[in-house]
Queue: 4 jobs
Job 1
Amino acid sequence: MARILIVEDNAQNLKLASVLLRADGHDVVGAADAMEAEGALGQALPDLILMDLGLPGKDGYAFTRELRHREATVGIPILAVTSFAMKGDRERALEAGCSDYLTKPIDRLDLLERVHRLLGLTAPTAVGAERNAP
Ligand code: MN
């Protein structure tokens, strides 16, 4: 179980990501923008940050760059989540300091595979597969 901060201004996307990550056993904190995220970071540092790149006010690229310049947050993996499916967005996200990149709509296994890899956990199994394991 990890502490995960989700920075996402779209309530439905925030809810979906929160549900999926909580179901995977994680402690999830949501923030609708960079300012709210700063408040959450002041409370406790997360093990991973899900970063929507399109945020009102300070966008996810600028916020990621800031976090990469802070001693407290420089080492926290940041998974960019965005509906920007345009060519070059992945590169832009990685350049800003994101660790990996995920496009919306969020796919459960795609999300968990990336989250687990960034947290250094084993890959997720398909729904129900755990029950059939020896
Ligand atoms: Mn957004």
Job 2
Amino acid sequence: MIVVGGTASNGMDISLSKLIGADLVKVETSKFPDGEIKVRVPEFDAKNAVIVQSTHFPQEKNMFELLLIAQELVRRGVNITAVVPYLAYARQNRSFYPGEAVSVNVVLDMFKVAGITSLITVNPHKSGPLMHFVGKVGIANAIDTIAETVKKSIENPIVMAPDKGGLVIAKNAAKVVGCEYTYVEKERDLYGAVSIKKTHGGDFRDKNVIIFDDIISTGGTIEQAARYAFDEGASTVSTAAVHLVMAGSAYEKLKNAGVTRIFGSNTVPFEHAEIIDIAPDIAKTLTGLGI
Ligand code: R5P
């Protein structure tokens, strides 16, 4: 087994290769004068490879790099598992409005055509649509690993889910942190603006609130949830999410809402957060798939 680290592996390739006792080769990339990317995978002697390549911003470049790496390994007769810690285009899993393309299916079909036989990703927003992939699918759960760090960092905590859909994550995180959890009700208007309604139990007064979520994208959800927690008497508000996509002014929104600490994983790089390496969760998932 060999680990092949793409340029968007965020250090996970290094720790994963150590954890599974496999050698690591780093992919080399360059650009043609017109901006197209060129990929070179150094020679290695193995018949099975785990490619580590996340597909965060710039999504198309990172995705295409992954496809090029896979194509080259197939040409060498290597069996491929792709570890795609953040899977871009996975949130459009149906046509929300008539005529919209279902991007997750397109991505999964491309992976298959590129010769990827097994796919591992981390806390996708919904896992059901990934079953469209014709091959083995493993889903790593990074919440416990992130919650372990939160536990060591925040005193007198309460965990909050920013919407009902986040309840399972909050419950699991609270179990690890060893505290209460609750959720609020979130509504989005037609333009995507978030408003928060009421809590379902849980007392925020004088507590250090940690809002757990799978992903922070525009930051609107955490911004409104944090404001709500302060209105309800929270002493401090921090947030922990697996994928810190942090699009546009997300960071400023969180700062302005009074969020003091941001915890996340190395599925996506983000310089203003406390980043936790979740390679152990990937290693566990590989073992679970028998790879
Ligand atoms: C939604 O159900 C998700 O769990 C996240 O809460 C959401 O995607 C975050 O998006 P944003 O940061 O744009 O509010």
Job 3
Amino acid sequence: MTPIRELSQEVTEQIAAGEVVESPLSVVKELVENSLDAGATKVEVRIENGGLDEVRVFDNGYGLEKEEVPLAFRRHATSKLDSLETLIQDLHTLGFRGEALPSIATVSRVIFTSRKPAKLVGSIFHIEAGEIISHEETGCPPGTEVIVRDLFFNTPARKKFAQSRSREASRIAQLITGIAFSHPEVSFTLYHGKKTIFKSSGDGNLQNLIIEAYSREVAQSMVTVSTARSASEGELSLKGMISAPYLTRSSRRYQTMLVNRRLVYSPLLSQALERAYYGLLKKGRFPVAVLYLQVPPAFVDVNIHPAKSEVRFQNPKEVNQLVFYGAKESLQRCSTAYYFQEENRSSPSYYTFKGSSNLSENSPSFSSPNFPMEARSMDKTTNYGTSSLQNSTGEKDKAEKEVQQKITDSSLELVTRVDRNIVPSEKGAFQIIGQYLASYLVAEKNGDLVLIDQHAAHERVIYEKLRQEHSLHSISRVQLAVPLTLELPSSWADNFSTLLPWLEEGGFHLELFGRNTYVVREIPAFLMEFFEEQFFWDLLEEMLFSERYDHEELMDLFKAFACKSAVKAHQKLSLEEMEELINKWQLTSNSGYCPHGRPVAVTFGKEQLQRGFQRRGGGSNNEGKPRSKKE
Ligand code: ADP
Ligand code: MG
């Protein structure tokens, strides 16, 4: 047995250091936070070899006087904390433990160069494994540069990171991106070796930052969130941007949550956000989001452990509702029309115009508070105008139908056209032009050309109806004239009874009839027309073997029903059928996307089309006028 002995000071320090400096990532985090605390507006980070060989952080902040530098490397020395009271009341600064620099210096070789902007010279301080090597005056730019070399060279931890350099580099990239979102007014640059990994302008504009962090395509899909509510504890507010449902990612890594501008990890916030997308996303897909939650300081408890900032709210329900309703409201604003974007590759790209493809020309400036989708999305209140259209054209219907039939009979025609002179319809109303490929309704609205996927639109109409009936617990049922007898395979029999409550909730009534036999007496009314025995068997099998009979599964069931019962593509519709579909669809919530998350309608803006024809867009007065007399 080894005798008990005191650990050497060196070992104790290394253990303590390990708590703060657990990885190259945490070195970067501590140094960048120090730069921000020093009021920097420009922070440059360079890493070599995943940060293991070198982390270098340069900032243009306040800097330190020469005599302050050694103090900064003494344990529990900090310029950021006067009393415990300050700590509790005001956590403006990011670090306050006064441990980072000494800890880092214990396990690496550090060169700390700093100059106060008002001074002519600064100083360069060199410390290795906690031992001061030198400290001299030097000429240097204002601000501070910290170089951390050979991290963990004197501990076994180095080996651990040697194998995960590229992973560490991407974690660092993600950290810097997150920090950039928490400080949009600071310009950040991250280099790995010679490669620029991330660069932000620091102009304070969130949309620009989203382009810099992700891409233009992502930025284009984003809609603004802005909401507030007052709780008994004070005012809560939420601002930021979330992606339209057609743009999703396979993980939550693209969700940045900030509470009082501090980057946090919060399942509660993510879940509240994702609930707002309910019925709009495929399984395993997650929206992109940058959300800034502002709450009274007493409302929130942030665990400030360097590696993970978990957050706890005093009143989680309020926060949950703020995020859910805020996001939902934004999604509704953007829900009706998916706008065709020229050369937009991430979202479904239907066609590409040759010629004009300059984003800034085609969409409003990113600094404007509205996105194209929001600005042009169809406003619910104006949609209701359609019925008057129907009345005014009612008399012509018969004649139109005849013409239409003539045209549909010609197999050469791709577009079934309703013989109508298309002039701009009344504001907000759809005017049907015809049907394209017997699959898409072609309509005009506010001077724009809209293609509506008839199957997807109908699917959404049915799905929303089901969802509504389900939430009211009032799925209309009908009795089958001839009850369907189900003789179950014996392998099913054991678990089948667990399905019964779910089937009941979904509008089916089954009764046991002998050992492995059930009779289906009632089915949901909406299925009456489409009910097929085979389909029902498939459904049961799927439910039984997926072993998930939760709410979501039921919704999936509804989606399957909706899909099954909706009009199909390649199905010719009469004008009345088209109008009925469009009218119902307009009144449906979440109408912009089918239950599987695909866009239902694609809108071609008038100006956009005119540009395609090389005509000048814009003013309605010179509509149709050629660009010049020569043309
Ligand atoms: P803390 O940040 O908790 O105070 P640190 O060990 O991270 O502890 O830093 C110690 C002190 O060094 C800080 O309080 C600050 O005064 C000074 N300091 C560190 N980095 C910088 C920097 N980039 N610019 C100016 N001062 C800095
Ligand atoms: Mg610090």
Job 4
Amino acid sequence: MKNDTPIQSILDSTVVSVFINTLIALFLAILYWEHEERAVLIWFITFIIVLFYRLGVYLLYKKEKIAAKRAYLLSLIGIFASAVMWVLPLWTFLRHADLFFQFFMSLFLVGISTGAMILYALDLLVALGYVSITLLSLLLWYVSFMDRPHFIMAILIGVYYIFLLVNIKKIHRLYTSYLALSGQKQGLMSAFEKSSEKFKALLDHAPFGLFFYDKDFKIQEVNKTMLKSLGVSKEKLLGFDLRKLDNEALKSSLFTPIQKRKKGSYEGPYRSIFSGREFMIDAQTVPIYDKDKEVVGALSIVRNIDEEYRRKKRLEAYANFCFNNPNPVFQIDCRSGEVVMENEKAAILRSLAMDWERVKSKICKIDTIDTFHFKVGSHTYLFTSIPTQDGMRNVYAQEITDEIKAKEEADFYAFYDELTKLPRKKLFLKFLEEANKRGKRFGKHNALLFIDLDDFKNINDTFGHATGDRVLSVLAKRLKGILRSVDTISRFGGDEFVVLLGDLSEDEQKAKEDVEKIAQKILETIKLPITIDNHQFIVTASIGGVVFQNMDEEELLKNIDISMYEAKKAGKNRLALFDEELKSHIYYKNEILQDLHKAILYNQFEIYYQPQIELHTRRYVAAEALIRWNHPKKGVLRPDQFLPLAEESGLIFDLDLWMIEEVARHIQELDVDRVSVNLSIQNILNCDFVAKIAQMSEEKRLNPAKIEIELVESIIIKDYHKIESIISRLKKLGFRFAIDNFGTGYSSLAHIKDLSIDTIKIDRSFVKGLGIDKDDEILTKSIIDIARNFGITTVGEGVEKRVQVEFLEALGCDLAQGYYFCEPLPLKKLQEFLKMQSPKR
Ligand code: C2E
Ligand code: CA
């Protein structure tokens, strides 16, 4: 019985009730039909309508068209209407029926009432109502006859009515408690079903694998976790024979429960024969018995302990790392401040650390991985603190004393020179900055001295760098020793030292004088002999100096550089102070250099020619080509105003080539036997230059027989062998050679002969002394004599006076050149001069 509420029980009884009512009503109608046709028909139809009504209500309820409560109330009308329908015949067509029929009808109604009472027992009100309507109507009906037999019947009905009333309650209670019980049972049943499903789901999704196998080692049941980790379907695994496993240790642990009735255990790697996947497992297997204590199979619980295993391995590795670590390693609980774990090294470190509490607080302040330095005694440690989630810190300490020292040293040597321990440029510039500030503030002068050792390269090249270094450190010490405390000395590298002299006089002149004195002292100190490994070294230096109050660092450094070069140029071992004159000279030089680059391009060079006279014929037979620069702003510049710069900048190469080519062109227009050309030493020693001349000569752009190359005497001693091969190469091509400024370079005339020199030009300084200085006369005479012996032509240079001409003539000199005869002239002018052809006597 499903209906567990009175409402439902009433509604659910509709069909049965309608069916029984219809049957009985039909029976009654058929039974009484012959007595009262019309009344029976009306009654029957009405009854059927009532019953249809009840069925209709029930159907509406079933189809959920009306709510249960409403259906119940509508049903009650139907039920009570049915009860009325049953008693209606008594008052209508049965009123006059015979006694037998009346008793039959009473029995009938008693039966219906009893049936209804049982049917509606759950709803006490309906049951009572129904029974009361039927039985009390019947009782009243009997009483209404007012005769004895009916009266007895009325009493019987009354007694039965009371009996029903008494029992109706009992039946109701019985019924309700039955229903409650049955409901409980049903609840229990569904709860049981649900929980067993839950249980199955629980096992299926348990965090461990589970399988059951029979004593033939065939798998009978398995949960989903197991299937998932093996990577196999249930169909495939069920019936799998465990004897097919290839892992012997695992197999034996699975056989133990069946063969020895004991628990089997296995922990280790397992490779799934289905998916090939490998992992660490823990398998615990127990035998399963039937009720006769016979082993029927075994249940195995398998856990994937991959993660656990890895964690364990990691822990092992960590423990190993800690305890076997040569460095202090420990763990500290920052909540209690206690050291939870430590290795021996850590214990020693802790015992040595006087201010352990500070270390601890530093460690615990760190909440992400971080490091800090801490000094324990004379040792420095680098502590690395790694916080864990539970307020712990894993700490790793590493001694870094050496590294710190190395770093400190590296930091020191970033600013100080390793060899001399003097400040490097970087640091020195800071001092300079300070000096500038002081100069600006107090009006006092400062000075910067750039000391560059002279020819220091020779010491390095001859005695090696180690010796060179020792010399440098001796000098550094000496210099430091003579400077005042307000002065700073720095090594800028190599053999360069820079000294900053501070706190000089406010008067510039006085400051300069002081600087000169100090520089002198420096030069003298440097010059003192230095003995290293029994060798004595004497070093000199060139000093460039600048006196300033407040000057831009870059400009200062540029200026001391310029003045130092000036000191070198002036003959080394001296001081050159930077001043306005030097500055303008430098600017002039730079300007000239800039213009020089454009001069060839803009055709600003011009060749002047100075004729040479043959003394015994008084004919102009030769000329010397001399370069001039027609500077657009500065006018005509002489060679000494730009040639040194041309040599310095390498422009001399193109210049001399241009010269030779131009001279070769002009020769055709000049009525002379030959023209001499001056070549720079730099060029004549340059193979490329010589090759170029040779090439030009082969290309017939030159006329070598008419060109005489003038070389200064000094070159012959400087590089005799090289010059010999060059001269012989060019001589083969037909060029003539002359030695210029002869007598100043100490070369021997024997050399001149060997080199097959054609001409010797006696230097102006000797010619100048003719008629004045006996020595000059003797020297000139001997040069001319020897040259004549060797068949070399002689030219007297710089002839300015008649007496010089007479002397040269008397001594047998071949040619003469000088202002006395003619100044160097431009080509056209010379041509005019030569045309006049009236040489001076
Ligand atoms: P140098 O070879 O001794 O040339 C002679 C210099 O003496 C010329 O000066 C000339 O003008 C000058 N001179 C001539 N007669 C007299 C005189 O009676 N008295 C005095 N005091 N001087 C006289 P310049 O033209 O200024 O040349 C100077 C130097 O420049 C030349 O000296 C020569 O070595 C060099 N030089 C000139 N032109 C060139 C060139 O094209 N290439 C190269 N590399 N050097 C050249
Ligand atoms: Ca010359």
